[in-house]
Amino acid sequence: MCRSERQAKAPELLIIMKYGLRTARGRAVKRLKQIFKNLAIRQKIVTAYILLLLFPIGALLWLANSIYTGAAVSAAKNNIAENSRLIGNQINSVIENAESCSEMLNLSINSVLALLRYEPAGIRQLKFYHGVDNNLDIARQMFPGIDRIVFIDENSNVIQTGNRGLEEIHIEQIRADLTGPTLTQWYPMSDIDILTRKKMEPALVLARKVIQIDTHDRMGILLLYVKEKTISAIYHSKYANDMAISVTQAGKVVSSGDEQMLFRESGRPVIGGQEEIVFYEREKEGRRKLFSEYAIGIFDWVLMTESDMNELLADHFRLMKYIMLTALLCCALSIICAEILAKIIVDPVRRLERDMAGVKSGDLEVACTYRSRDEIGRLALAFNEMVGRIKALLQDVQAEQRQKREYEFSLIQAQIKPHFLYNSLDLIYVLCSMGRSEEAGDMTKALADFYRVALSGGQEIIALAEEINGVRNYLLIQKNRYSDIFDFSIEIEEELLATPIPKLSIQPLVENAIYHGIKPAKCFGRIRISTRRLDGRAEIRVEDDGAGCGGKDLEELMGESAKFGLRSVHERLRLYFGSGYGLVLNPAETGFSVSILIPIE
């Protein structure tokens, strides 16, 4: 057969093949139909149920796996992002505290020099060094994140906290870096001391030029050391079990919970542009890892985290196992129901259906009361366990939200307004300049006592006596600043002094009384703080006879958070003690009156 003849018959062969396939498929379908007809009714029902259930269950498992995998990864990313922001804020706080400490010491050294202005030269120098030494020790205690403080005067005399011995110093480069208008210079994380050029524990160093305020002459240089362990302690203790965390700069590790990783190359960061945080997945050591990079916002530092995907999805795998087991159990029960078709099976299923509808509508107090040892009874038991697990899961979510709010309020408590500190230091400086050293001493003591209560060794709950002591010191400082504007009185019942209260709960109310009550009234006013027992609770009332609130209720005032700092106090009290406690606005003919309600025990 020639090629042209084969080509001519090719379409005929295709038609024959298609017809043969169609005939064979038709015969197969007919045979299957015949086999299905010859089956028993029970077998028909079971076969139909199997065929009908396989497709939706497979689709459900695939869809559930896709949805829950995405949800688990998204929740993990949100958690990592939130923790990264918290860590970044705390690291920024350490850096800001170091800069605030350097500013405070600059003013303190000027104050020491001003007090010794009329002393003989020899005695003045000794007292000056002694005064600077005391101020360095005080600053070291006030700022625990700073490991060491060193002051070098223009004659290269060294005063420092901690270890007193320095064999040789190299100050020339630091002085060169602080020439001209430059006041401060941060030196990157290093294990070589910038001053002695010797080995030390890795640390950041802040150099500040100390300027004499009157003449603008340089008096010396301050060096503040922030250990790397101070940075790594922020995240290592709380988050090390969940993920590996390190801080990098220009592709090099500058902080890590693992000391062996310090100053190693970490690779160039992925994050760039306006991105705050980025996530990416990568294989590492044969395991799938989730990496994140968060721009801290200082020194081009990037917070890098590393999490194992299997650990992140562990709950998801367990959930999928439960879903698969439940699906298989439902299949078995459906087949049994199709075989028996009896009322004793249908009624419990309907009862269980009603209970599931109740759960679907949001009633988690539903419990299936059907009790038996058959599959429906086990399904009822599994349903009750599932509802119990859902309730436990909701409680866990609420607990996590509570912990998150506690972190937020801890950050709010930690952010003591810096302008009060600056104004207080300015007041002390003015009193010193005017020769009113006794009043300056009282103000310094009041300021120190106030911050001692505000810091309180990291405790969130303190005794009412300590809180009142901090408020009294705050009012003493403010009264010295505004002596012609207001006066105050404090009347506390002795038996309530031991009552626990969140710290810095009364001070924001007193501040509102001064700045939004007394000062706008433009006349001399009075602030009164008093306590009493009220229905088994302790009431702490803060009153002023100032401008008042213009007839607004508590919700309206708390909505004006930029003007009245009431919401954070109210939310904190409710967080610690429950919804029956918090702030209460009292009716007042003149001025403003607000009460804090807390439990006595």
Question: Mind explaining what this structure looks like?
Answer:
The protein has 601 residues and is an alpha+beta fold. Among the domains are: 231-313, PAS domain (Beta-Lactamase), CATH 3.30.450; 342-412; 416-599, 2-Layer Sandwich (Heat Shock Protein 90). 54% of the residues lie in helices and 20% in strands. The protein has 15 helices and 17 strands. A five-stranded antiparallel sheet has the order 2-1-5-4-3. A hairpin with a 6-residue loop joins strand 4 and strand 5 (218-227). The mean pLDDT is 79.
Strand and helix map with partners:
Blueprint: H1 3-38, H2 41-115, H3 121-142, E1 148-153, E2 158-160, H4 172-177, E3 184-192, E4 199-211, E5 218-227, H5 228-239, E6 244-249, E7 252-256, E8 277-284, E9 287-295, E10 301-308, H6 309-312, H7 314-340, H8 343-360, H9 375-414, H10 418-433, H11 437-455, E11 461-463, H12 464-481, E12 486-491, E13 500-502, H13 507-521, E14 525-534, E15 537-544, H14 554-559, H15 567-577, E16 582-586, E17 592-599
Helix pairs in contact: 2-3, 2-5, 2-7, 2-10, 8-9, 10-11, 11-12
| Proportion of strand residues | 15-25%
Order of neighbouring strands in the sheet with most strands:
2-1-5-4-3
CATH topology value of the domain at 416-599:
Heat Shock Protein 90
CA radius of gyration: 37 Å
Task: Please bin the fraction of helical residues.
Answer: 40-55%
Architecture of the domain at 416-599, according to CATH?
2-Layer Sandwich
Q: What does the main sheet amount to?
A: 5 strands, antiparallel
In angstroms, what separates the terminal alpha carbons? 109 Å
CATH class of the domain at 416-599: Alpha Beta
Q: Per the principal axes of the C-alpha atoms, what is the gross shape?
A: flat
Q: Give the quaternary arrangement of the chains.
A: single chain
Number of helices: 15
CATH H-level name of the domain at 416-599... which superfamily? Answer: Histidine kinase-like ATPase, C-terminal domain
- Number of DSSP strands? 17
Instruction: Extract low-pLDDT stretches.
Output: none
Query: What class do helices, strands and sheet pairing give?
Result: alpha+beta
